[in-house]
Amino acid sequence: MRTFRRLEGLRRTSQRARFHHYVAWSLYFISLTNAVLVATVLVRVADESDAAALAAVSTVVGGQLLLSLVLIRTALRYYLGGQDRPDRLLVAYYAATAATLIAPVLAEAAGGMPEEGRAIAIYQAVYCAGPAVLAWPLRRAAAVCAVPAATCAIGAVALDAPLLGGLVIGVATAGGAAVCGAAFRTSAWTLKVVDRLDAARETEARLAVAEERLRFGRDLHDVLGRNLSVIALKSELAAQLLQRDKGAALDEMAEVQRIARDSQREIREVVRGYRRADLHAELVGARGVLQAAGIVCRIEDRHGERLPEPVQSALGWVVREGTTNVLRHADAGRCTVRLRRLANGEAVLEMENDGVLAEGVQDSQGGGMGLAGLRERVAALGGSLSTERGAGGTFLLTARVPAGGAE
């Protein structure tokens, strides 16, 4: 049950987090493959080996394999920029690796292990390249990985293997280490690319929100800029007329009062969004922004241009706010916008996306000011706004507005 809950929790995380887990466990699996290979060799030579020599080699190799799992985790974090290089752990790991290279050779030389035990040293020399390419630059890592390969070749020759045979072992071990190192390095590099793409997507979402704020600021500037200038001039004029012509001064102050009230009304219109938001333009803009963020967007627009202007404006704001929510609060891969008009004349707009990250993020119970504002805007036209969470992390935003007449 606990494992199931962990898997369910992992499924609810972002695609980036799931990919991180996949790559990390893939690297752990490679190290565990080394453990399986070494264990297979130990089992095969157990009957022909001295018990003390077999126990010593098993202990050394087991410790090195445990250090390998720990080092893979910390070295991967270092490569991705999450922490400092684990120098002490690296020293301990490669000291243990040196021991695993020497122990089978010494055991064979002492007659405590058959020749087949050499494979343990070769496996360790190959798999130790993985953490090296994560913790060091490629040139230094190549030099570090060449030492175990050379050690295997020298050890084989020292145990009466022909020179050509030792050379073949060294080349084969170096080739295997290169393949293992390439697997680790490309996996970590892929993770770094995914992190950068995810950061770029977050930046794009923030820019979309910033653009909306700039648009709102421009609207306020357009509404207040001219009116405040007029109010300032007329107030100054009224002050000058107060000494000469009180009647004219009163007229000017009355005009100031009228302009101030008009400005108040226009600000309310901007804040509440009573200015017309073109529905077609919002749909096109939503598709462009979502697709630029890597989200597949599908628009199903049925007779949207035939809707009354107030209805189009209200639904346009729903599209705008819904798009912002998808960018900010979901790790979506797709988004579908459906606009249709029912037989009773009601206009229905649905925005459905996947990739909702956590409970309540986009829920109507969350009390978000965006959804609350949309609900007020739609209710002013006699409509309703609802949200629904579906299976698989989907989210559905539905706006219903009476459009008058039948289709």
UniProtKB/TrEMBL annotation:
<keyword id="KW-0812">Transmembrane</keyword>
<feature type="domain" description="Signal transduction histidine kinase subgroup 3 dimerisation and phosphoacceptor">
    <location>
        <begin position="212"/>
        <end position="278"/>
    </location>
</feature>
<dbReference type="Pfam" id="PF07730">
    <property type="entry name" value="HisKA_3"/>
</dbReference>
<dbReference type="InterPro" id="IPR003594">
    <property type="entry name" value="HATPase_dom"/>
</dbReference>
<protein>
    <submittedName>
        <fullName>Histidine kinase</fullName>
    </submittedName>
</protein>
<feature type="transmembrane region" description="Helical">
    <location>
        <begin position="165"/>
        <end position="184"/>
    </location>
</feature>
<feature type="transmembrane region" description="Helical">
    <location>
        <begin position="141"/>
        <end position="159"/>
    </location>
</feature>
<keyword id="KW-0418">Kinase</keyword>
<feature type="transmembrane region" description="Helical">
    <location>
        <begin position="88"/>
        <end position="107"/>
    </location>
</feature>
<feature type="transmembrane region" description="Helical">
    <location>
        <begin position="51"/>
        <end position="76"/>
    </location>
</feature>
<keyword id="KW-0472">Membrane</keyword>
<keyword id="KW-1133">Transmembrane helix</keyword>
<dbReference type="Pfam" id="PF02518">
    <property type="entry name" value="HATPase_c"/>
</dbReference>
<keyword id="KW-0808">Transferase</keyword>
<dbReference type="InterPro" id="IPR036890">
    <property type="entry name" value="HATPase_C_sf"/>
</dbReference>
<dbReference type="InterPro" id="IPR050482">
    <property type="entry name" value="Sensor_HK_TwoCompSys"/>
</dbReference>
<feature type="transmembrane region" description="Helical">
    <location>
        <begin position="119"/>
        <end position="136"/>
    </location>
</feature>
<feature type="transmembrane region" description="Helical">
    <location>
        <begin position="21"/>
        <end position="45"/>
    </location>
</feature>
<dbReference type="InterPro" id="IPR011712">
    <property type="entry name" value="Sig_transdc_His_kin_sub3_dim/P"/>
</dbReference>
<feature type="domain" description="Histidine kinase/HSP90-like ATPase">
    <location>
        <begin position="313"/>
        <end position="398"/>
    </location>
</feature>
<dbReference type="GO" id="GO:0016301">
    <property type="term" value="F:kinase activity"/>
</dbReference>
<keyword id="KW-0902">Two-component regulatory system</keyword>
